[in-house]
Design goal:
Layout: H1 2-24, H2 33-50, H3 68-78, H4 88-119, H5 130-139, H6 152-172, H7 178-197, H8 206-228, H9 236-253, H10 273-293, H11 296-306, H12 309-333, H13 342-347, H14 362-390
Helix pairs in contact: 1-11, 1-14, 2-3, 2-10, 2-11, 2-12, 3-8, 4-5, 4-6, 6-8, 7-8, 9-10, 12-14
Length: 394
């Protein structure tokens, strides 16, 4: 099953690859393929996780929700550069243009879509308002549901802004030490988990709690690049033996390892295990990404996915709805899809109709949920290139 999964994803990216690389932009010659692939793996786990499809979790050994969000924090921290502190305004503006402004534009799109579908009897999502457009994205990001997976984008923006401001202040105080920053952020993250376990992170407290929970993930990327990467030289056999051995022990002696980052919930094993499973999950897939990066064909095709994580994160839930909409029409107009639950389709964003009643039907959602957003991004890039060429903007 795992082999089929890898082949299917590779097949999808290969089919799209020849055209999409031109549409989405060629890789820079300095591109770090290992981390592009790690990002591609991370977004695959996100999409599969929203389907409840554990095809890539190694038989439950590495549950997606025990580490996958932190992959993107780790990657972002890895690529952070100290030069950002020389011109913080420019850095924040760049993050606004890359993360925040595109998010708000798509949030408006999905808000309008939700309003239209409300009139058609679909109850999903809140009503369009200034709150749901500009405030709710920071409080939870589930305001319109069709793009709820993108809650991570405003949260990442805040993590990056807080990080650069903190480092600037620590630099002035001559306290900017990577281990100090990492340990302090880890202590704050663990304290947040302990408070959440005690029921103290609720309501609006989830907003700062979410950022504090996520912050150590960003610093993990920094500490890996600055202090650990040069020593990450163990042979693959010994490396995997250690990582998998630790993960097996964690799994045996603890309850379920998954936890909810967005709502700061479901910490069943105290305040240490969540970050330990983050470390083991990232360590395992980081080495897998390194191995994949050594194959030029595999790495080139997976890098296409890795360059489009924003688009996939933003749109895959809407693509799921589109697929369900097709099944809905089939159930209305043909004798097929007789088991389609129309009530759930109209009122439950998490409803998944399985064609033929088999788990294998989730592959339709998985491949479309990753492929269609990549095509959307490629199409938009082509439009921008055309406008730039003809009008001279962008």
């Amino acid at each position: 099953m795992y082999g089929f999964g890898v082949l299917a994803v590779l097949g999808l990216t290969y089919i799209m690859g020849k055209n999409i690389e031109e549409k989405t932009g060629k890789a820079n010659t300095e591109e770090n393929r290992q981390f592009r692939i790690l990002s591609a793996l991370g977004i695959t786990f996100v999409v599969a996780g929203h389907l409840g499809y554990g095809v890539f979790d190694m038989g439950g050994l590495f549950p997606y929700y025990s580490f996958h969000v932190f992959i993107f924090l780790f990657v972002s921290g890895y690529f952070y550069k100290d030069e950002a502190e020389k011109n913080i305004g420019r850095y924040i503006w760049k993050k606004c243009t890359v993360l925040l402004f595109p998010y708000f534009l798509w949030n408006l799109f999905y808000g309008i879509l939700a309003q239209i579908l409300h009139k058609a009897g679909v109850s999903l999502g809140e009503s369009l308002s200034l709150k749901t457009l500009f405030l709710s994205p920071f409080l939870g990001g589930h305001q319109f549901l069709y793009n709820f997976s993108a809650w991570f984008v405003p949260a990442l923006f805040l993590v990056e802004v807080i990080n650069v401001l903190m480092r600037k202040v620590l630099g002035i105080l001559h306290l900017k030490r990577e281990w100090l920053i990492f340990i302090c952020s880890l202590i704050l993250g663990m304290a947040t988990i302990q408070l959440a376990i005690g029921g103290h992170v609720w309501g609006n407290y989830k907003f700062p709690g979410r950022i504090l929970l996520m912050f150590p993930g960003f610093q993990m990327g920094r500490i890996y690049k600055e202090k650990i990467e040069s020593h990450d030289t163990l042979p693959n056999g010994i490396y995997f033996l250690l990582v998998i051995g630790v993960q097996v022990l964690i799994s045996i002696f603890n309850a379920g390892l998954a936890f909810g980052v967005v709502w700061v919930t479901s910490f069943a094993n105290g305040f240490v295990i969540p970050y330990l499973t983050v470390a083991t999950g990232i360590a395992f897939w980081l080495r897998i990404a390194r191995i994949m990066s050594e194959n030029p064909v595999v790495s080139a095709k997976l890098a296409v996915v890795g360059r489009n994580t924003f688009s996939i994160m933003m749109h895959h839930i809407a693509v799921f709805m589109l697929i369900k909409g097709i099944f809905y029409l089939c159930s209305c107009l043909t004798p097929f899809c007789a088991g389609f639950n129309r009530e759930s389709f109209f009122h439950d964003i998490n409803y998944i109709y399985l064609a033929g009643g088999t788990e294998a039907g989730k592959w339709i959602y998985l491949l479309a949920g990753m492929g269609v957003p990549v095509l959307i991004k490629g199409g938009l890039n082509r439009v921008k290139a055309f406008v730039r060429k003809t009008v001279g903007v962008f």
